[in-house]
Amino acid sequence: xxxxxxxxxxxxxSCATAPSDxxxxxxxxxxxxxxxVRPAGRLFAPVxxxxxxxxxxxxxxxxxxxxxCGTGGCTHKLFxxxxxxxxxxxxxxxVRELALRHTPKATILDLEIHGTHCGLAGVNECRRSFLxxxxxxxxxxxxxxxxxxxxxxPLFQTLPVAEGDYPLAVVDALRDLADSCATLGGKYxxxxxxxxxxVTGDGEVDWIVGSEYGGCLKRDAEGQxxxxxxxxxxxxxxxxxxxxxxxxxxAVDVASTPATFIGIATSEDCGGYDQQGCMETRYxxxxxxxxxxxxxxxxxxxxxxx
Length: 306
Hints:
Order of helices and strands: HHEEEEEEEEEEHEEEEEEEEEEE
């Protein structure tokens, strides 16, 4: 009898209809796909994230076809109900695997994503986990299901960040990188700013500005680029830059509270498939100085497969 009740509950759940505004959003997402464009409702499945008694929704675009998929998996979205009514888009990315698990006090999002997000080759396994924060209405990074809290940069984002949404201090930090490059006669390309776990202990999201995929380049008449300098990196907390680095390669360890920023010095004697780890510097927050302070450089575990 219990098995029949569970089966009936699952059947009813699968027949649940998503709110009209969410259906309209997703229908708009797929409106330009190859015809015939079928109703978006078939992409929705009810899930529990916020535990407020109102259904949350998982949208699986893999069901829409390969136009929504790539080497990093297929696009998935999560819409989470809010206590004041309505929904917030809490996840929008390509993933290979997505699962929600529940503890007595939390909802955890477990992902398997493109290997480059772990500093590895694309085919390598890369697992990340995120904890739902109801007060802030977002997923925050935490150690994955295997207990690994080390996140390779540039950080995987649960939601894409449009440049128009950058805080003013982040915009200023990007301009600083561009201006520094301009003084060398080049142009800063590949600008990137990532939301970061809290590395200063104030309980707020920080920002890491710059990445190894950016660079200070000078192009010739044929468009060929010559690197002029390391792309550089800034960490912004609130409206203040709390760390400036020349090297753009980094990781963030969320196994500690606050999270620990790790600067990685790449060189010919480290990384790759058969070489040893690179030298790493872990930074700790100095509240009196209002900045991140470097510890000793040590040989780290990073074996970057590039």
